[in-house]
Amino acid sequence: MTQTCPPWLLAANWKMNMDHLQTLEFIRELSILMPEKEAENSGVEMAIFPPFTSLRTAQVFSTSYQVALSLGAQDVSPHPSGAFTGEVSASMLARLGCKYVLVGHSESRKNHHETREELVGKAKNAIASQMTPILCVGEEEKGGEGMEEICSQAEEVFCDLGKEEREKVIVSYEPVWAIGSSVTASPQRISRAASALKADLFKKFGASPRILYGGSVNEGNIESLKGLGLGGFLVGRASLSPAEFTAIFRCLEKGKGLA
Question: What's the CA gap between 56 and 53, in Å, rounded?
Fold first, then answer.
């Protein structure tokens, strides 16, 4: 059965930033800026993806400060358990209250030389532990069409998932050239990418995944990115500031239901 969800998912990928004390301070400030009742009634689901070392802090203090936050992990092992030093299993993350996990972020693909088999294993293990994998896809070069490249990246994982597993995957379009820069893909390109992914995955697998966009999303450009057939946004640098993260939230709250 397809999961029900709010119109928008606002996900904060902190990357290798924010230790456990900074995470605590972020949540404390967010609790002041964003009362729990407002967040719960907004139609926007907020999720943070802190480093592994900050997950427990986020889990405990989001409850203590009554902040309506979902938790996500930045990566997961393709193995369920065993002699894999330095890796973290899906079941461990689920026990920490993680609802989401990133799979195939371009930085992980590049730095860890992830294989197709590893990406499939990560997605499958996340789903088996009742978490939602967010599969990241994106073209390397700014010029050119790039739609075939991103569809191929999604297909290589979806082809090895079962029908019910495919229904649990979210896809995030993140052009590699836009990540960590001050350049955001144009609304036209984002809309075209979302449409291409939806059409391709439905045609080949009968899947209709929620599509996010990530790549230099911030307070200044979020207004122009609404209403593009998206289900939310994966925010990087701008999500490290509680004030800016709240500003992005409020912009989506005003336009809820447009995706």
Answer: 7
Q: Which two tokens stand for residue 178?
A: 């836009």
Catalytic residues: 105, 174
- Output the pLDDT for position 216: 92
Amino acid, single-letter form, for residue 259? A
**SS3 label, residue 77:** coil
Residue 233 burial (CB < 10 Å; 0-12/13-18/19+)?
Answer: buried
CA distance 29 to 160: 42
Q: At 1, is the pLDDT very low, low, confident or very high (cuts 50, 70, 90)?
A: very low
Domains in the chain and their CATH numbers? 8-15+22-33+49-59+68-78+87-254 (3.20.20.70)
Banded model confidence at residue 2, pLDDT cuts 50, 70, 90: very low
CB 63 within 8 A of CB 94: no
DSSP SS3 for 6: coil
